[in-house]
Design brief:
Layout: H1 2-13, H2 20-26, H3 29-64, H4 67-70, H5 76-79
Length: about 90
């Protein structure tokens, strides 16, 4: 695949310097390179959309989550800072 993409880039730069044999070997690679490029672009678009949806859900939870959103990432000592949480079970 790397040879095909390098050859395509060379074709853009040096169109007249390629031999007929090189062009013949390059013909099957061009559709494969185009298909891989299309798949890559579609996957990037899907990931971009999913990332936007996830960020929207997180922001919505922070905005409208009420008390759950306020303490969602807090530790247990943040709820009652005056309480000593050491285990004092002396039996």
């Amino acid at each position: 695949m790397g040879w095909g993409s390098n050859s395509i880039e060379d074709w853009k730069k040096f169109k007249d310097e390629k031999s007929i044999a090189e062009w013949t070997l390059l013909i099957p690679i061009i559709p494969l390179a185009i298909i891989c490029l299309i798949i890559y672009k579609i996957l990037n678009l899907v990931l971009y959309i999913l990332k936007g949806i996830l960020i929207g859900i997180i922001e919505g939870f922070r905005e409208y989550g009420g008390i759950f959103a306020d303490y969602f990432d807090a530790s247990y000592s943040d709820y009652c800072p005056g309480i000593n949480w050491k285990n004092n079970n002396k039996k």
